[in-house]
Design goal:
This protein has 21 helices and 14 strands. By secondary structure, it is of the alpha/beta class. It folds into 3 domains: about 260 residues, 3-Layer(aba) Sandwich (Rossmann fold); about 90 residues, Helicase, Ruva Protein, domain 3; about 100 residues, no CATH class. Strand 1 and strand 2 form a beta hairpin. Helix 17 runs antiparallel to helix 18. The longest helix is centred in the middle third of the chain and has 22 residues. The radius of gyration is 27 Å and the shape is globular. The C terminus is likely disordered.
Length: about 525
C-alpha cells in the first residue's frame, strides 16, 4: 500500500504540472454547427464529438487540403461536394488537372467539359468585365506563365495589340455592355486577331526594335498554332453554364502541358471571380459555388496568382475555393495563412511538416500526430475570426463519407529486414484507398481492363496483395520501376524496403527461390 505525503509547493511548481488543462479540441458549440447549414465531416478523436464544418466562425469559406497519395484527400473533397449539394444546393466546379475526378463526376450524373478534346475557351472573352480590366488580367496571366515581365517593350506591344483587337471589334473599352448598332452582342476578338495586328506591324518594317516585336509574336503564337489553339478560338464553354449546372468537371488532362493547364485554370478563376463579384455576397444559407483546385501547383504557389488573390479577399464573394495538394510546399504560404480551414491528412516528409507547422503554428504534439495519421484520419486547423481560449488545431478519428472508403493493402512481411521485424510499431502493410490506387494505375498508362484485373485480385484476397506480386503484375503491364518506386514512396515505404522489394522481384522472376536474398540494412 502506498503512502500519501503532504509537502509544500510553490505556485510556479503547481502551474508546471498542468493538473487541469483543456484538451486539444474546441468546445461543442464550435464543433456542432446547425446541421441544416453546415457540412458533417466526422467525429473528433478525444471526445468523439460530431464536427460539422461551417464558415460562420472562421475567416472565410476557403479551404486547403493536404495529404500524401492514398491518404483520402480526393475522397474528402468528393464527400464535401456531395454534402454541400444536399445541404445548400451548391454548384461545384472541379478544375481537374489530371482528369482524376472525371469518372466520379460521370457516375454522379455531373457534366464533363474537356479542354483539348473538342472544347475551346477564348481568353479574350470578357466574362462581364470592361475590356480595360480584362486586358490587365490577361497580361498578368502572361507574366505568371511566361517571361514577358522581363521584357517591358514586349509586354507593352502585347498589351497594345490586345487593346487594338478590341477596338477593331467595335468594343467600348470602359463599358460592360457590348452591343452593336442593332443591339446584337459583339463577338470578342481572339489571340489570332492579336497575332495578325502584331504581324501587320512587323510587315511595315518601320518599328525601331524589330527583335522585340518578333519575340512578342513568337510568345503569343505558342497559343495559336493549329491543333493547339485551345484558347484562340471562339468559346464553346459557357461560363454561366459551368457555374450553375450542379457538379461540373473541367478536364484539363487533354491539354499539352502545365502552362496550357495553368492558363485555362487562371482564366476560369478570373471569370468566376468577376461573376461572383457582380452577384455580390448574400445572407442566404451556404455557398452558391465551390471551386476545386487539386494539384494546381503552377497557380497555387505564385503570390500574385488569382487563386491567392481570391483567398486573400476572404468573404467578398459567395463562393469558396478548395485548394488541394500532396505537397504542401506547392501551396503558397499566403493561402495557408488566409484560408478559413485547413484539413491535413497524412503528411510524410519532415520538410512538409516544417512548412505546415511554421505556417499554421500548431504544437509539437499535433505535428507528431499528423505524421502518424492513417487513411482518412486528419487534423483540422481553423482560423477563427476572434481570439479563442481553445486550440485552433484538432484531430478527427476519420472522415466519414457518403459510403465507406474501401482500403486495399500491400503486405510487406516478406520484404522487411530483421531489424524492421523486431520493431513492434513497424507497419506490416501499407494501405491505399481503392479509387486512389485505380487513379494511380491509370496515370501510369494502364488501360481500364488492366486496372480491373488488379482490382479483382485485391477483392478476391480480402483486399490484400503481396507487394512482390503487385510489382511483378505492374511490370508485366509495362509500368516502369521509376513509377512503381514513386508509388511505393508515396504510400510511406522507405528506400531500403523498396530496394528489398525489387531484389525479391528479380529473384522470383529468375526462379531463384531456394535462397533468401541478403537484406540491405542501414545500422544507426
Amino acid at each position: 500500500m502506498g503512502r500519501l505525503k503532504l509537502c509544500k509547493l510553490s505556485n510556479r511548481e503547481v502551474s508546471r504540472r498542468n493538473l487541469l488543462v483543456h484538451p486539444p479540441e474546441p468546445p461543442l458549440d464550435i464543433l456542432f454547427a446547425d446541421p441544416t447549414n453546415s457540412i458533417y465531416v466526422g467525429k473528433t478523436r478525444i471526445f468523439h464529438a460530431p464536427f460539422y464544418w461551417s464558415y460562420e466562425n472562421v475567416a472565410n469559406p476557403h479551404i486547403a487540403v493536404v495529404g500524401i497519395s492514398g491518404s483520402g484527400k480526393s475522397y474528402f473533397i468528393k464527400t464535401f461536394l456531395l454534402r454541400a449539394s444536399y445541404v445548400w444546393g451548391s454548384n461545384a466546379l472541379i478544375i481537374d488537372w489530371a482528369g482524376e475526378y472525371k469518372d466520379w463526376v460521370k457516375q454522379t450524373n455531373g457534366k464533363i467539359i474537356s479542354l483539348g478534346k473538342g472544347s475551346y475557351l477564348n481568353i479574350l472573352d470578357l466574362g462581364g468585365m470592361k475590356p480595360y480590366d480584362r486586358i490587365k488580367q490577361i497580361v498578368r496571366t502572361l507574366e505568371l506563365l511566361t517571361d514577358i515581365a522581363q521584357y517591358p517593350e514586349q509586354r507593352r506591344l502585347t498589351e497594345q495589340a490586345i487593346e487594338k483587337a478590341y477596338i477593331q471589334g467595335k468594343f467600348k473599352m470602359d463599358a460592360t455592355d457590348q452591343k452593336d448598332e442593332l443591339g446584337k452582342q459583339l463577338r470578342p476578338p481572339t489571340l489570332k486577331d492579336v497575332i495578325k495586328i502584331l504581324e501587320e506591324m512587323s510587315s511595315l518594317g518601320s518599328y525601331e526594335f524589330p527583335a522585340e516585336l518578333e519575340n512578342a509574336i513568337y510568345r503569343i503564337k505558342q497559343y495559336t498554332k493549329s491543333g493547339e489553339d485551345f484558347f484562340a478560338q471562339q468559346s464553346t464553354v459557357s461560363l454561366d453554364e459551368i457555374i450553375t449546372s450542379g457538379l461540373v468537371d473541367l478536364d484539363l488532362s487533354g491539354l499539352p502541358d502545365e502552362t496550357f493547364r495553368a492558363l485555362a485554370a487562371l482564366t476560369i478563376l478570373q471569370f468566376v471571380k468577376e461573376k461572383m463579384r457582380s452577384v455580390g455576397w448574400t445572407s442566404k444559407k451556404g455557398l452558391r459555388l465551390i471551386v476545386v483546385l487539386d494539384e494546381a501547383w503552377k497557380i497555387a504557389k505564385e503570390e500574385n496568382s488569382d487563386a491567392v488573390m481570391i483567398v486573400r479577399e476572404g468573404r467578398k464573394y459567395n463562393f469558396g475555393i478548395i485548394v488541394a495538394s500532396q505537397n504542401p510546399t506547392d501551396i503558397s504560404e499566403a493561402i495557408f495563412s488566409n484560408v478559413g480551414t485547413t484539413f491535413m491528412l497524412k503528411v510524410k516528409f519532415e520538410r512538409f511538416l516544417d512548412y505546415l507547422q511554421g505556417t499554421l503554428n500548431f504544437s509539437r504534439y499535433m505535428r507528431d500526430e499528423i505524421s502518424k495519421l492513417g487513411v482518412g484520419e486528419c487534423a483540422v486547423n481553423m482560423a477563427f475570426t476572434t481570439p479563442t481560449p481553445y486550440p485552433s488545431t484538432f484531430l478527427l478519428d476519420k472522415i466519414e463519407g457518403e459510403e465507406p472508403s474501401k482500403e486495399y493493402f500491400l503486405d510487406l512481411e516478406g520484404v522487411l529486414s530483421l531489424k524492421q521485424k523486431r520493431e513492434v510499431n513497424m507497419a506490416k502493410s501499407v494501405s491505399f484507398l481503392k479509387e486512389d490506387l485505380r487513379r494511380k494505375m491509370r496515370q501510369y498508362g494502364l488501360t481500364d481492363d488492366k486496372v480491373e484485373e488488379v482490382t479483382k485480385f485485391f477483392d478476391k484476397n480480402n483486399r490484400h496483395m503481396d507487394v512482390i506480386n503487385f510489382v511483378i503484375q505492374l511490370e508485366r503491364y509495362g509500368v516502369g520501376r521509376r513509377n512503381i518506386s514513386e508509388m511505393l514512396k508515396d504510400s510511406g515505404i522507405d528506400d531500403i524496403t523498396i530496394i528489398n522489394i525489387f531484389g525479391k522481384v528479380d529473384m522470383r522472376k529468375t526462379d531463384v527461390t531456394g535462397r533468401d536474398i541478403s537484406q540491405v540494412v542501414v545500422e544507426d
